[in-house]
Design a protein that fits this description.
Elements: E1 12-16, E2 19-22, E3 27-30, H1 33-36, H2 46-55, H3 67-78, E4 86-91, H4 94-109, E5 113-117, H5 126-131, E6 149-152, H6 163-176, E7 183-188, E8 191-192, E9 198-199, H7 204-215, E10 218-222, E11 246-249, E12 260-265, H8 266-269, H9 285-298, H10 301-324, E13 328-334, E14 337-342, H11 348-360, E15 362-363, E16 365-367, E17 373-376, H12 384-403
Parallel strand pairs: 3-15, 5-6, 5-7, 7-10, 10-11
Antiparallel strand pairs: 1-2, 2-3, 4-12, 8-9, 11-12, 13-14, 14-17, 16-17
Helix pairs in contact: 2-9, 3-9, 10-12, 11-12
Bound molecules: pyridoxal-5'-phosphate.
Pyridoxal-5'-phosphate binds at residues 93-95, 98, 121-123, 189, 193-194, 222, 224-225, 250.
C-alpha cells in the first residue's frame, strides 16, 4: 500500500446500519460512516443495488439513456432548495462534481475566476486542490495549481471571525486581487467539513448571495458532506433560506457507491454546448439505483424528524463533555453534523482520542485545519441504544486522551 494513503489497523469484514465487525468478529460502533457516505446506514440500498445488478451494470449515459439516471435527476430537481427549474449532471466523485460546477459557471458567465474560502475542502484533483485550504497533506508538493482561484476568509466565530469580518475581507479581495466582474462563482460549504465542521452563521450565506447578485457571480453550494439529510433537511443550505445557482452533491448520495452530481438552474446548466460535459462512468446505473432509494428516504418527514432528534441528543452530550473538560473549547454544527474542538491548535489530542476510541470499539474521525476537531458522521439510521453506547465510548476515549 502506498505511503500516501493513511488508514487504520481496522480490517472490516461486515457492516450493517451503524455497526461494523472486523475480521476477528469484534463489533464496533461506527461514527464515521465511511467518511460521511452512509447517512442512511450500511446496507440500506443493498436491495435496490441487487435488483439493478440483475438488469445491467453499465451503459454509459453518453451511449444510451437509462431510467435510473433520469430518475435521480428528477429527484434532485424535486428536492432542489428553491423555486427554479433545474437540470442535473451525474458524476463519480465530489471533486469531479466541483470541477464540473466550475466549468459550467465559467461558460455560463464568460468569466474565469473562482472564489473559495478559508477552511474549505473541495477535493484532491488539480482544480479542487487549488480550492481546498489546507497545505499539508492535501497540497504540499502537488502544485502548480489551477490559476484564477482566490481565497476569502470564512466566518469562524470560535476563532474570532464574524460574518462582517468575512464580508469586509471579500470586498477587500475585490479591490486588491480580482475585480468582481471577473468572478464566475463562489464555492462554499454550508457546514465546512474537512476544515473543522464549521457551520456558516445564519446570516453569512444570505449576505454572500446578495453580494453575488450585485456582481453577477454564481453561488455554488457544495453539499458533498453536509447534504443528503446529514443536517436534517435534504440539503444543509435549506437552514439558510438561500437558493444557490449550482449545487454539488456526493458521498451519501450513492448509498455507498460512487456517485456525485451538479444540479443547477436550467439556463445555467444548459450554457455548456453539446458534448462539453460527460464521462465514462458518471451516473452509473447501479449507483443511481442506490441513490433513488437514498433520496426517497431522506426526503421523508420521518427521516428529517429523527435526524433533528439525533442532533439534539448528540449536542447535549457533547456540551457535557466540553463543560467537563479544560481541554475542549467548542461544540458546533447543524443537526447531528456536530463536532468538538480542542482549544489547542495541534492534532495530538484528537489523534489520541480517535486511537483510543478504536481500541474501545468506536470508529471516529478527526478533522480541521489543525487536526484538532472530533467530528461525528454517524449513520443517521442509528437507534437510541447504540447511539448512547457510541457516545459513552467517546466519553471514555476523551478521558483516555486526557489521562494520556
Ligand atoms: C465538501 C466536500 N466537497 C468535495 C469533496 C470531495 O469529494 P470526493 O472525495 O468524493 O472527491 C469532499 C470530500 O470530503 C467534501 O467534503
Amino acid at each position: 500500500m502506498v505511503r500516501g494513503i493513511v488508514t487504520t489497523p481496522l480490517v472490516v469484514a461486515r457492516a450493517e446500519g451503524a455497526r461494523l465487525w472486523d475480521v476477528d468478529g469484534r463489533e464496533y460502533v461506527d461514527f464515521a460512516g465511511g467518511l460521511g457516505c452512509q447517512n442512511t446506514g450500511h446496507g440500506f440500498a443493498a436491495a435496490a443495488i441487487h435488483e439493478q445488478t440483475d438488469r445491467y451494470l453499465h451503459q454509459c449515459f453518453m451511449v444510451t439513456m437509462y431510467e435510473p439516471y433520469v430518475e435521480v435527476c428528477r429527484l434532485l430537481d424535486e428536492t432542489w432548495p428553491g423555486e427554479a427549474e433545474t437540470k442535473s449532471l451525474l458524476l463519480n466523485s465530489g471533486a469531479e462534481a466541483v470541477e464540473n460546477a466550475v466549468k459550467i459557471a465559467r461558460v455560463a458567465t464568460g468569466r474565469p475566476s473562482v472564489v473559495a474560502f478559508d477552511h474549505a475542502f473541495h477535493g484532491r484533483t488539480n482544480l479542487t486542490m487549488a480550492l481546498t485550504a489546507k497545505v499539508v497533506p492535501y497540497k504540499q508538493g502537488f502544485g502548480p495549481f489551477a490559476p484564477e482561484v482566490y481565497r476569502a476568509p470564512a466566518p469562524y466565530p470560535y476563532r474570532g471571525v464574524s460574518t462582517d469580518d468575512a464580508l469586509v475581507a471579500l470586498s477587500h479581495l475585490f479591490k486588491q486581487d480580482v475585480h468582481p466582474e471577473q468572478v464566475a462563482c463562489v464555492v462554499l460549504e454550508p457546514v465546512q467539513g474537512e476544515g473543522g465542521f464549521i457551520p456558516m452563521p445564519d446570516d453569512f450565506p444570505p449576505r454572500l448571495k446578495e453580494v453575488c447578485e450585485q456582481h453577477g457571480i454564481l453561488y455554488v453550494d457544495d453539499e458533498v458532506q453536509s447534504g443528503v439529510g446529514r443536517t436534517g433537511p435534504v440539503w444543509a443550505i435549506e437552514h439558510y433560506g438561500v437558493e444557490p445557482d449550482l449545487m454539488v452533491t456526493g458521498k451519501s448520495l450513492g448509498g455507498g457507491l460512487p456517485l456525485a452530481g451538479v444540479t443547477g438552474r436550467a439556463e445555467v446548466m444548459d450554457a455548456v454546448p453539446p458534448g462539453g460535459l460527460g464521462g465514462t462512468f458518471g451516473g452509473n446505473p447501479v449507483a443511481c439505483a442506490a441513490a433513488i432509494a437514498v433520496l426517497d428516504e431522506v426526503r421523508t418527514e420521518g427521516f428529517r424528524e429523527r435526524v433533528a432528534e439525533l442532533g439534539k441528543r448528540i449536542r447535549a452530550r457533547l456540551e457535557d463533555f466540553v463543560a467537563q473538560s479544560h481541554l475542549l473549547g467548542d461544540v458546533r454544527g447543524l443537526g447531528p453534523m456536530l463536532a468538538i474542538e480542542f482549544a489547542e491548535k495541534t492534532p495530538e489530542l484528537a489523534g489520541r482520542v480517535t486511537a483510543a476510541a478504536r481500541e474501545r470499539g468506536l470508529v471516529l474521525l478527526s478533522c480541521g485545519i489543525y487536526g484538532n476537531v472530533i467530528r461525528i458522521l454517524v449513520p443517521l439510521s442509528i437507534d437510541d441504544a447504540l447511539l448512547q453506547r457510541g457516545l459513552h465510548l467517546l466519553e471514555e476515549s476523551l478521558g483516555d486522551a486526557d489521562a494520556g
